[in-house]
Every structure is written in structure tokens, then in C-alpha cells.
Amino acid sequence: MTSPSPHPGSPAATRFPVVVVGAGPAGLTVGNILRAAGVDCLVLETESRAFIEQRPRAGVIEEWAVRGLEQRGLVAGLSARAERHSECEFRFDGHGHRFAYAELTGRHHWIYPQPLLVTDLVREYADVRGGEIRFGVRDVRLHDLDSDRPAVSYTDPDSGERQLVHCAFVAGCDGARGASRAALPGRTRISRHDYGIGWLALLAEAPPSADRVLFGMHADGFAGHMPRSPEMTRYYLQCPPGDDPDAWSEERVWDELQRRLGAADRPSLREGRLLEKRVLDMHNYVVEPMVSGRLFLAGDAAHLVAPIAAKGMNLALNDAFLLGDALVAHLTTGDSSGLDGYSDACLRRVWDYQEFSQWLSEIYHGTSCGDPYRAGTTLARLRRLFTSPAAAAAFAEQYLGTAGAY
Questions:
Q1: SS3 for 241?
Q2: How does pLDDT run across 116-139, given as a tens digit for each residue?
Q3: Sequence-separated (6 or more) residues with CB below 8 Å from residue 37
Q4: Helix (H), strand (E) at residue 14
């Protein structure tokens, strides 16, 4: 919960128009938008710069999100290194089924691992645009959010002293376990959905086995293949929630991947050393509203979409575009319409992506649920994607994030 700020006369007190808590894609994008408009802000991050630039996360960026980054001068690294994907592939009934969504829509996906994007955004914010950022801060607390003089306090990692920062607004971009969520009032509604399944997330030092994302629907569980670079591939294997990653030896992992992603008309997977193994329990949540007084949530602090639909980083960027632009408009021209409508504008896309994630989960996991009826209807849905142009177009719109008006 929010608390009153420490004594305002503290010699350590400073002031910024905006304090951004969290240096992920959302927080850094907001910071860059503010700096480009000449608005001072302070970004606070509990981890080190090296850590956030290496932390493994998502890698799929939708075309509309790339355009948003481009409009704000934030695509230099992405333009040089990202891979453009125009199709994916579903593997079921022992065969591979290519789904060429670019042929249907004229739009693409971009593959650019989040650590690379974060590295670009940190460099642009701190080194190019001269933004203030503090890494490794501890015990971040938010104060007086319902007043017109909110504040953020934290412990400096070098001196060990408490620092107090007064501001006009706080952008809470520090995830579900950060100070921003802890400061929300008890009346805030948090909707959650648990899928009751786990995914074993794997990062393999192995070249991609195809130039596209592969989705394997198998009676023993889902498997996914996501290219990340010419040398690295992310894989997923459905497993029980809370499963022990150490129970999965490299031999067991590759046996399951080869079987669940196997297709009679496709070559075997290219294997390599596993660099990462962790189990993700599949769940979603949504915080409503995404605003509490002078605190505006963005990214995982406000919502989570399980990696089922590869939507998380895109939602974080959408929040950041809307919030950054709204803060600039208010602080430079006094136009508060963007801030007033921020939560509703974000939640339209958030709930649309939540619904698609739930629908896609049934496609991925229906064949392995143990219910012959659900398995049969799942296969019927899959076959429809390849026999009905209308079904294919509807799926492509949602997969690419172009469905609906936001």
C-alpha cells in the first residue's frame, strides 16, 4: 500500500517530473519518449545494467509495435539485426502444415530477443539522450500517490542511504512483484486465470531447425520451436505445473522434442547444448484499472499473458507508447485527455490478447488433455485453418495483433 512520504526537508530529496520504476521494455520506452520531448525523468531499477541486458525473455515483436518504435527513433539495432518472419508451421497428425500469414495479410512478425531490445533502449536513454537512471536500488517505496505531490524513496546501493524523489507522476513498470503493485489499494481488481499446465522453457545452443516458428500438437503434450538467432533456438515442452527442471536430462528433453515436433515430411531437429531450463506455470492476470492516483501501471505490473501467444512484450510496448505520449502531452501542453483515457485504451488490447491466448491454449493443449472429445474438436479447429480462408484470415489477424480497433 502507498504510504506518506518521509520528511520533505531531507537533504537527499530531489525532484523529477516523472519517476519510472523498472527498466524493462515498458519503462525504458516511456523514459525515451519523455527524454525525446525534453521532459526530465528518473528510472529506478533493482537489478544491474548487465543483468537486464542479458535476462532471457520474449523475442517476438509485432509489426505495429515495430512501427511505433520506429516513429520514436528506437529501431536502429532492431532494423540491423532483427529477423522478419512471414509464416509459422503447425505439426499434427504426423505432418507439418505451413501457415503463410504474410500471404494472407501482407504483414509480418519480427524476431528480436528482448535482451537486445533492452540493451538498445538503455543505450539510447542513458548514453544518447542523457536520461537519469539508477541501477541496483533497494527497498523502493511509493508515497502519497493520491496527492498532487507523490514521491518515491529507495536505498542507494553505494552509500546505503535512503533517497527521496518528489515527482508529478510515477510510471510503474516493475512487474507483478515490484513496488508499484505493492502500492495499489485493496479495492483494485486483479483478474487471474490459471491454465493448470506448465511449460519447460529451454534455450538451446543449436541452430534453428526451420526458418519459422513450429507448434507441435501431440498426444503427450505441446512442444514449440522458436528461432532466436542463427546459433540459438528457444524450445518449449508442456509439462506438469511445478515440475522440477532437473528431472529433465538433455537426453530426455531432446527425445521429447524430436517426438512431439516430429513430422514424416520434415527433417529431424538440430540438437545442441541446453543453456537454460526452467518451468513456467501458465497463467494470465489483468489489473483494473491500470491507474491509481498518480501511479500509472505498464507492462507486467498491469497484466500478464502467458507465452502461449507471444504477446507480452507487445502489450508492454503498447502501454509505453500510450503512457509516454500522454505524459508528454500533459507536461508540455496541459492536455490530460491521454492520461484520463490511458487505462481504458490499454485494456482494450489487453483483453483482446487475453482472449486469443485462451483460445490458442485450447489449440496447443487440447490434443493432450486426455479427453477424446476435446482432442477431436481441437483437431477439427486445426484442420479448419487450412481449409477455410475465413478461419485462416481471422487467425492471422489475431496472431499478428491486427484484429480490432485500438
A1: coil
A2: 999 999 999 999 999 999 999 999
A3: 328, 332
A4: strand 13-15
Q: How many CB atoms lie within 10 A of CB 7?
A: 8
| Sign of the dihedral through C-alpha 303, 304, 308, 309 | positive
Q: How far is CA 221 from CA 49, 196, 239, 363, in A?
A: 37, 13, 7, 11
Beta bridge partners of 155: 138, 162
Would you state the torsion angle of the CA atoms of residues 146, 147, 148, 150, taken in this order, to the nearest 10 degrees?
A: -80
Q: Where are the alpha helices (DSSP H) in 112-167?
A: 114-122
Rounded Cα gap, residues 77 and 121, in angstroms:
9
Between the alpha carbon of residue 2 and those of residues 142, 182, 293, the distances in Å are 6, 8, 10
List the 95-99 sheet strands across, edge first: 95-99, 88-92, 213-216, 223-227, 233-239, 189-205, 273-288, 303-304
Torsion angle in degrees (nearest 10) through CA of 169, 314, 302, 243: -140
| Cα–Cα distance for residue pair 302/27, rounded to 1 Å | 12
The helix/strand/coil state of 61 is strand
Q: What is the pLDDT of residues 290-311, one digit of tens each?
A: 999 999 999 999 999 999 988 9
Rounded distance, CA 9 to CA 201, Å? 49
Q: What string of DSSP letters covers 392-404?
A: HHHHHHHHHT-SS
Q: 101 near 107, Cβ under 8 Å?
A: yes
**Per-residue pLDDT, 9:** 47
Instruction: Write the DSSP assignment of 215-240 as a string of letters.
Output: EE--TT--EEEEE-SSS-EEEEEEE-
Q: Give the amino acid at 163.
A: Q
Q: Sign of torsion, CA 291 72 41 137?
A: positive
This prediction's pTM? 0.93
pLDDT value for 12: 56
Return all residues near 60 (Cβ < 8 A) that are at least 6 apart.
109, 110, 111, 226, 310, 313, 314
**Matching residue, cell 502507498:** 2
Nearest Cα to Cα of residue 27 among 39, 43, 16: 43
Stretch 173-194: mean pLDDT: 95
Number of H helices, E strands in the chain: 13, 21
pLDDT at 188 over 80: yes
In angstroms, the CA 33 to CA 170 distance is 15
